[in-house]
Design brief:
The structure is a single chain. About 30% of the residues lie in helices and about 25% in strands. The chain contains 16 helices and 38 strands. The strands form 11 sheets. Strands 1-2-8-9-10-11-19-16-15-14 form a 10-stranded antiparallel beta sheet, with helices on one face. It has a 5-stranded antiparallel beta sheet with strand order 26-27-28-31-32.
């Protein structure tokens, strides 16, 4: 595997940047990257996103609902909600680490450095700046200004007329008293100088703070700019008083680095350098900082908790942060209705969420619960009592957005998981014995099929096989029998209705017509039916031939080795006979519509590992790995997105083939880590 193209200091150098020698930072030496290359820094309440083009934005409490500064995702006319004058403006280099970013500028006369980080337990962003005068006999002066475009809500165009700003005690304070849910919150900026040669001024109209700095020959001075938010106005003064001492800033910085290193840095030694780099920090950092904490990125800022999303994300943490997984299972149990269905997503600050007819959400509860207990042996979680949600019928609506509060009725986590299975089993179509797809299964884009899902049936078979072990522990004879019975019935339904010569079909429309069959002109084959056929049926000796044939078909039609793409389906939808849903709104070969959907590509690697075909599994992981797409300039210019985080999708469209799509905010990072840990972890030292 190539290490360096032209810069011997870096691994996988591509003319824009590369990994440092210790493989725990990504250095960007040319910020004219094809697209903004970002770093997400966050704790559970506060976060910020920076990029090679500048700061993207910051938020508090909820990354969509309470943006402190304007979110910018337009990389053509990049107009960030926070900007600097005098630093981080032009001709700078970047170092992205776990929990921090370093901005470096070196001119003929000045050295400038800014370290940006979000402490784990404080709702602030610290921007610590050092300026050094390189002139040995000449004084210099410089101004560094920090300006924000305050939002204090969802979007600036709806809040800017209501924002109040005042300077008080060397702090610039912002409030939106007309916010329905966040009028009690306050954002603030303070600049703390660590030299008498720094004059600080605030501008309430421009929402800015300026440091006028005078430097003696060879002098090096520092200061910090803090952006924060709070529900207690006195906290701003507490923070200011704490960090008026430079040593406090440096101490917190080191503590932040240690916190993240302990959380994400591992010691995998698989024999594959690129896989090791991702598994030894970058995958877990992406999963925790972005998916679990920020729930935001350059391409989307949602702020919401997805029922299945965060369960899967925390599943990757069972061995490294089991308390997080445990708490997520309990939290998700509390988002279930007595009927057995669950919220598709919700906001934790107001309990507002959406009730839908999606058919896989609730099944991730028993799936992740089994994974958690299998690895931790923590059977005590099964007895934890958790309340249900109040029932608000959907009526004739396909979805209902409302505030859903918990009721006094409680049940054990075991019974919540059991109820999810029973509810799913109540949605079997008696004509073919397969589970109803509702308004979509794992693939949200199949929103108009309304028939049955073959993938979901495979998924349920796997759950029943594993949940039976939990039922045995609970001595639940009725559930043991039910798991065995329905797994047997599903097996025969799959063979009778879903096998199509050389692979398994994907779904059935409400009118009975098939999707993912050889007879289709579009979507003749879908990846996840083949991958999960292996996972669900691998223990049936009589289906050995079908499984091998199905996975061979997936390799033939869906794995593009030349362009390093694993397509979700083939051919893409263009003018389908039956409308599958909003998936066809995507251009053919983009995202779910025939591009690589990396979440599913991980499942193909998992299937190969289950078949003991490790070489092919690792080949798929190498194709998924962002470093493989960007270790030369030529590759990076095609791939365009960050080399150090997993992309949700990669385009197969001929006009954009190999281009990475949505990065950072994707569950693909958690699944990639899980697959590496589960199947290659035995090789770590």
């Amino acid at each position: 595997m190539k290490k360096n193209n032209s810069n011997n200091e870096y691994i996988a150098f591509n003319s824009y940047g590369g990994f440092n020698a210790t493989k725990d930072e990504y250095h960007i030496l040319n910020t004219n990257t094809p697209l903004p290359w970002c770093n997400v820094m966050a704790n559970e309440q506060f976060g910020t996103i920076v990029s090679s083009y500048g700061t993207v934005y910051s938020y508090f409490k909820n990354s969509r609902e309470y943006k402190i500064s304007e979110w910018c995702n337009d990389w053509v006319s990049f107009e960030p909600g926070e900007r600097f004058e005098g630093i981080y403006e032009k001709d700078y280099n970047l170092r992205y680490g776990f929990g921090y970013t370093v901005v470096l500028e070196d001119t003929e006369t000045l050295n400038k450095r800014m370290d940006i980080f979000v402490p784990p337990n404080e709702n602030i962003k610290i921007q610590y700046i050092e300026i050094e005068n390189k002139e040995k006999s000449k004084k210099q002066s410089i101004d560094i200004k920090y300006i924000i475009e305050p939002v204090l809500g969802v979007a600036r165009d709806t809040t800017e007329d209501f924002i109040l700003c005042k300077k008080e005690d060397s702090v610039l304070k912002f409030k939106n008293p007309y916010s329905l849910e966040f009028s009690h919150l306050m954002a603030y900026i303070t600049l703390l100088p660590y030299s008498d040669n720094i004059v600080v001024t605030y501008d309430e109209k421009e929402y800015s703070v300026n440091a006028h700095i005078k430097l003696k020959p060879s002098e090096k001075i520092s200061f910090c700019i803090i952006l924060g938010a709070t529900d207690d106005e006195q906290e701003a003064n507490v923070i200011k008083d704490k960090y008026i001492d430079k040593e406090a800033v440096l101490k917190t910085y080191e503590e932040t680095k240690k916190y993240w290193r302990k959380l994400v840095v591992k010691n995998f030694k698989t024999g594959n350098e690129y896989i090791d780099i991702m598994a030894n920090g970058f995958l877990l950092y992406q999963t925790i900082a972005c998916r679990l904490f920020a729930r935001s990125g350059l391409y989307q800022s949602s702020g919401a908790l997805g029922y299945r999303d965060q369960l899967q994300d925390t599943m990757a943490l069972i061995s490294t942060w089991p308390e997080k997984t445990r708490n997520q299972i309990i939290l998700n149990s509390s988002k279930q209705f007595e009927k057995g269905d669950v919220l598709h997503w919700w906001h934790d600050h107001n309990n507002a969420g959406i009730r839908t007819y999606f058919s896989d959400d609730y099944l991730w509860l028993p799936y992740v619960l089994v994974e958690y207990i299998t690895k931790t042996k923590d059977y005590s979680i099964l007895d934890v009592e958790v309340p249900y949600l109040e029932d608000k019928p959907m009526g004739n609506n396909r979805e209902l957005y409302d505030v859903f509060n918990n009721i006094d009725v409680k049940d054990s986590v075991y019974n919540h998981a059991k109820k999810a299975i029973l509810y799913s089993l109540s949605r079997i179509n008696p004509s073919n014995g397969l589970l109803e797809i509702g308004d979509g299964d794992w693939n949200d884009g199949f929103s108009n099929i309304r028939g049955e899902s073959v993938w979901l049936t495979f998924f349920m078979m796997n759950i029943l096989q594993n949940f039976e072990k939990i039922a045995k522990y609970m001595k639940d004879e009725e559930m043991i029998s039910l798991c065995q019975k329905h797994r047997h019935i599903f097996k025969h339904s799959i063979i009778d209705y879903a096998w199509d010569e050389n692979h398994f079909v994907r779904a059935f429309f409400e009118n009975g017509e098939v999707l993912g069959a050889n007879s289709n002109k579009e979507c003749k084959i879908d990846l996840i039916s083949q991958a999960w056929a292996v996972i669900a049926l691998k223990d049936y000796p009589d289906l050995k031939d079908e499984i091998k044939t199905a996975i061979a078909s997936a390799e033939k039609y869906l794995v593009d080795k030349q362009n390093m793409i694993v397509k979700l389906l083939y051919p893409a939808f263009d003018k389908p006979k039956n409308n599958p849903g909003y998936i066809k709104a995507y251009v053919p070969g983009i995202r779910e519509n025939g591009g690589q959907y990396t979440h599913a590509a991980n499942w193909l690697a998992m299937a190969y590992f289950e078949l003991k075909e490790d070489k092919k599994a690792i080949e798929i992981l190498n194709m998924i790995n962002p470093i493989s797409h960007s270790d030369t300039k030529e590759k990076a210019d095609i791939y365009k997105v960050e080399p150090y985080v997993v992309a949700a999708d990669i385009y197969s469209n001929p006009e954009h083939i190999g281009r990475g799509g949505w990065t950072w905010y994707t569950g693909s990072s958690a699944w990639m880590y899980k697959v590496i840990e589960d199947y290659l972890g035995k090789k770590k030292s």
